[in-house]
């Protein structure tokens, strides 16, 4: 089966290269034009651009909320409409986070910038899987490193990882490449899971390098 030279789709056993050249010379607006993108692209570059477009919309992670908008808009929307359901924190500072017996996630929102994260908890046969994700487009250049610590007396489990960025939060059902596996013994008799969480921003380091 042949593939189209412009879009890569299967087209059968024959190709019309003249028509492919005509199609590839055509330019179309980015699908994120309603959100502010002004790029005009060929068909062959459209999909790649849209996957990395800084104007890609994000979706509010709050259950049953249909709000959609740019990254900064979603952060502001959450702070204005769902702040009672989030725990505020400050970058580079350790915070205590407690998940109740049946609580599967905690929304974490930074004090000064409203950057939004979701800490998720999911049980498996070995214990509890904990992940931290940032709500934002895939193209988000800013990176966040998080540390999660769970302790049982003098014994502790710790993870330091880069927070994965998601425009659409999937409810924590699909943990990313990095997660902390908390042994069952670390969960209290009351079912509560106590964690110490630190989220670090790279903005301060970039600013410091820029001043040198």
Automatic annotation (TrEMBL):
A single GO molecular function term of this UniProt record: zinc ion binding
UniProt-listed SUPFAM superfamilies: TRAF domain-like (SSF49599)
Domain SIAH-type, chain residue ranges per copy: 25-83
Keyword Zinc: yes
Record keyword Ion transport present: no
Keyword list, A-Z: Metal-binding, Zinc, Zinc-finger
Recorded superkingdom: Eukaryota
InterPro entries from the UniProt entry: SINL_plant, Znf_RING/FYVE/PHD, Znf_SIAH
Pfam families in the record: Sina_ZnF
Gene3D superfamilies for this protein: Zinc/RING finger domain, C3HC4 (zinc finger) (3.30.40.10)
Functional description taken from the UniProt entry: E3 ubiquitin-protein ligase that mediates ubiquitination and subsequent proteasomal degradation of target proteins. E3 ubiquitin ligases accept ubiquitin from an E2 ubiquitin-conjugating enzyme in the form of a thioester and then directly transfers the ubiquitin to targeted substrates. It probably triggers the ubiquitin-mediated degradation of different substrates.
Protein name: SIAH-type domain-containing protein
Species of the source: Striga hermonthica (Purple witchweed)
